[in-house]
Amino acid sequence: AHAACYIIVTPECTFGRLRNMILPPSCVQLFSRNFSKLHCFRISENLQTESDEDDDVDGSTQGSAKDVQISTDSSKQTLKIFDGNDAVKRNQFRLISIPRIAKNEEVVEAALRAYYINDDQQEYDLQTFTQQALLSDDVINRNDAAEDSNLGSVFRESVPEAWIIRAKPKDEEVIRIYPAWLKVGMAYVSLRVNKDSTTQTVIKEVLPLLGRQTECIQNFKLVEVLMGSKQVQRMVLDNQELILNRLKDIRKTSLRQMNQTRFYVVENSKSIVRVNLFVGGLPPQLSPEEYTNILKDELAIKTNVVSVSHVYQAQGAVVLEISCFSEAERIYMLVKDTTVNDKPLNAVVIPEVTASKIPRNSCPLLVFVNPKSGGLKGRDLLYSFRKLLNPHQVFELTNGGPLPGFHTFSKVPSFRVLVCGGDGTVGWVLGALEEIRHKLVCSEPSVAILPLGTGNDLGRVLRWGAGYSGEDPYSILVSVDEADDVLMDRWTILLDAEEPAEGAENGIVEPEPPKIVQMNNYCGLGIDAELSLDFHHAREEEPGKFNSRFHNKGVYVKVGLQKISHTRNLHKDIKLQVDQHEVELPSIEGLIFINIPSWGSGADLWGSESDNRFEKPRIDDGLLEVVGVTGVVHMGQVQGGFRSGIRIAQGSYFRVTLLKPIPVQVDGEPWIQAPGQIIISAAGPKV
């Protein structure tokens, strides 16, 4: 923070405006020793496009042997400055420009400034080296007596152009010791160490300063932590290690590294390794023993360190608890290349959330993002939400689906969900929630939508807008926090084909087993589903072209124009029963059951004029509206807002009899349905 800002920063982080929806880091545990950030935060490797820069790059003038620009000003000279042996080995130096006649201390000061070291320059000096000197550590580390005795001397033309900046040896110095996770009211304690101070004596002196004088020093260790820009390295110091020697070694390696190093006093804990690995893509509906056997056969798991802690039979997924890092890493890498019944397995490292540590008024947000939705806008949102929230509460749906997220939050007493994707993605998440609801402590979380798809009808109805167009992700989260809860009906559709699939020889083949799908928005039969099916086929042939809403809608129009002259007598091919009563159908080409007042990207199919035969539709009235369309032209007029559909019925239980194969679509997912029965009824509790 800037000095002026630092004064007003509170010492304790309150998580700011989004505090109610952030999953507090203190209640998340993840044993991640062998896993990179990509694995721990479940970031798909193929989404990674950031360049891999060197650890030390921070914008100051630095170079390697290849690219060095020398000052052209004849009154000045340019020197290469190395900050230690590590920089010499890598040939990474920083350039300083000094007058041709300059005092030794001026050069030291300029060298320290190049490395952002703001210590007293009296504590440092410069050593020269030649190319041969690079080969011998002794030469690098020699202390040039002649140079020392001549400190007041000035640099002249003949000086070598490369120097190493070195810290002068000290007999004692003051170091800071940080109290790690020990709950004490101070950031660090300062301690004077001399040439006899060891790790053990430091711990002994520090504990009373932290109010732990009664405790045995054997229960504590001193940990050296180097915080580089790419990673944090920890090293436990040996009890007899001389602290001054250790400081000297670090400075010899790199003075900058010394600036990035801290010492922590840490309580010894019996470390129990527990890595949780979610493995999906297994055959559904097997017993825990059968899953264990598959994993033994395919992944050769070691049952003494691997156990199956949770089984999701309906989804064909298990959670493994692994008590050995190398075994966890081996399984994780192996799963990626393993298929069972020709289906690839997937593995996700999942954190452990300690529900008891979540503050009482907190309601963390579980975020699901479909990076493929909305012309890759999903990918940018993933990055933003990981930064604004705890990355452990943000899940990418292409990486194992919604289940790893719901499993991670299964013990959280109260949470809400944000789904970023099209209506199909929302249906996917709601379907998964329905299946796993009984295993969640918070069995009915509210769901918000950030619409990324083409139609986004559900997003429109719930007032999240027609589609995301690059708004600030922070303001979206604020909107989610302030949004109101409403209830919505969901419907179950049972599809029971009575005839065997086409191509059955001698009629011996059994008909397809009944299929059950969930519906949130609408279900269409006939022309509406046929257009959807053609669009679906076009997208499967060239998925790369379908990454903008505008293009997608253009394809819908083109597909529709090809169907204008088609006449289909759908009313002759189906029969409709509403709440046990037969309903006579008018002459139509499409029959649509609607749960929400938005269809086909925002059109109002039912219409707004009042009608004493029917109730005014609501999304939580336990009723579906049934509407007919006469063809593509009629659908176009509805889309343009010039007409509405033909109102046919309203009810809570429907039976449709198909007399021949007919295209059907549910929430935008189309297929051809064989002759038979379709039954639509209310599904479980409202969502």
Automatic annotation (TrEMBL):
Tell me which SUPFAM superfamilies the record gives.
NAD kinase/diacylglycerol kinase-like, Ubiquitin-like
> Has keyword Membrane?
yes
Q: Which domain of life is it from?
A: Eukaryota
**Record-annotated Ras-associating domain positions:** 171-270
Q: Which Gene Ontology biological process is one annotated for this entry?
A: glycerolipid metabolic process
GO CC aspect terms: membrane
Q: Which UniProt keywords are present, listed alphabetically?
A: ATP-binding, Kinase, Membrane, Metal-binding, Nucleotide-binding, Transferase, Zinc, Zinc-finger
**Which InterPro entries is this protein grouped with?**
ATP-NAD_kinase_N, DGK, DGKtheta_RBD, Diacylglycerol_kin_accessory, Diacylglycerol_kinase_cat_dom, NAD/diacylglycerol_kinase_sf, RA_dom, Ubiquitin-like_domsf
Q: Which residues form the DAGKc domain?
A: 360-497
State the name under which the record lists this protein: Diacylglycerol kinase
User: Which pathway is this protein assigned to?
Assistant: Lipid metabolism; glycerolipid metabolism
Query: From the UniProt record, which GO molecular function terms apply?
Result: ATP binding; ATP-dependent diacylglycerol kinase activity; zinc ion binding
Q: Which organism is it from?
A: Leptosomus discolor (Madagascar cuckoo roller)
Q: Which family does it belong to?
A: Belongs to the eukaryotic diacylglycerol kinase family.
Question: Where, by residue number, does the polypeptide cross the bilayer?
Answer: none
What's its EC?
A: 2.7.1.107
Subcellular localization is given as:
Membrane
Q: Which CDD domains match?
A: RA1_DAGK-theta, RA2_DAGK-theta
Say yes or no: keyword Protease present: no
Q: What class of enzyme is it?
A: transferase
What reaction is this protein's catalytic activity?
a 1,2-diacyl-sn-glycerol + ATP = a 1,2-diacyl-sn-glycero-3-phosphate + ADP + H(+); 1,2-di-(9Z-octadecenoyl)-sn-glycerol + ATP = 1,2-di-(9Z-octadecenoyl)-sn-glycero-3-phosphate + ADP + H(+)
